[in-house]
Amino acid sequence: MDEFSFIDSIKQKTYKQSSIIKGIGDDAAVFRQQTQDIVIAKDMFVEGVHFTNNTMEPYHIGYRALAANLSDLAAMGANPAFYLVAIAIPKKWSTVDLDSIYQGMKDLAKDYQMDLIGGDTVSGEELTISITVIGYVDKAKAWYRETSEDNDIVFVTGTLGDSQAGFHIINNPGQYDQGEDFLIKRHRMPTPRIHFARELEPISRVSLNDISDGIASEANEIAEASNVCLHLYDSDIPISEHLRQFPLSLQTKWKYYGGEDFELMGTVPEKDWHLIEKAAEKTKTKLSKIGFVSSESKFQGQVILHYNNDKIERLVKNGYNHLRR
After folding, report:
1. What class of enzyme is it (predicted)?
2. Do domains 3-138 and 145-314 have the same CATH topology?
């Protein structure tokens, strides 16, 4: 059983609470209050799985752990408000280390006026951080993966593959170009696209997903949830100039399957594309049009990759998967 099959196996078929709008199956859960929908997401950050002492300083651990959660809120179009932190602490981690971890979280939370409102602290064998973030949207204004339709434009923010390149540099010291610091920062301190996502509120329909496991995985999730086909153009997938110093095989691997860039990909009706561009311009967010959506039944739930030589192939869902054996 892989990670996604396991998640599907524990998903409730029905809910007892009538206020639930979205449970398991998207980037965050949503439940309705009188005038707002509350959005909740949770992620874990585990020593030896997501980081080691070699790949991240304590400050980066805290920053990166909260950033991953905020990216889930961004994918729902939510405004962040609160967070709770549960942490298992091994004896080898000092008080100074822990202070730095929480400082990383506090500094990022400050950018979005978030408040730390609770959590738990226990001892453990490996440092483990579990964060719950709570945000809100106006009633019925959360964005979901399942709303893509025929002829939508597919887009993505930022550049892809940078985080994995940064991880590679950290673990393989050597001679790199002047982009070394940029790529390492993209791995340790990603920017959640909260401000960009909040500017999408006037749009009638947007399907969003955050790129945590790689665009190959996230694009397939949108295609499957919406029962459509996403067509992506290989030449339009954005990468940074610093990524081009690596062999083409690594560029391709990292931009499609690397993950942890925490950019947003999504689809939008063609008539609303100018509003996406306006949001990107206002928030100084790099934006790329990378494909289109079709409803042809033979490709339903799939992602098709188009190359400049007219070759096409299916882009399979091979991003990071915690339970793959």
Report:
1. transferase
2. no
Per-domain residue ranges for the chain?
3-138, 145-314
Residue 24: its pLDDT value, please? Answer: 62
Indicate the annotated binding residues for Mg(2+). 27, 43, 72, 120, 210, 213
The confidence band for 322, taking pLDDT boundaries of 50, 70 and 90, is very low
Reading the block at residue 295, the tokens are 């409803």
Superfamily of domain 3-138: PurM-like, N-terminal domain (3.30.1330.10)
**Which residues are documented as binding site?**
27, 43, 50, 72, 102, 119-120, 145, 210, 212-213, 260, 320
Which secondary-structure segment (H or E) carries 186? helix 180-188
**Mean pLDDT in residue range 254-276:** 98
| Model pTM score | 0.88
The binding site for ATP comprises 102, 119-120, 145, 212
Identify the band that residue 127 occupies on the pLDDT scale cut at 50, 70 and 90.
very high
pLDDT value of residue 323: 44
End-to-end CA distance of the chain: 8
Q: Say if CB 166 and CB 185 are below 8 A apart.
A: yes
Residue ranges for the binding site for substrate?
Answer: 50, 260, 320
Q: Helices 180-188 & 162-171, crossing angle to 10 degrees?
A: 110
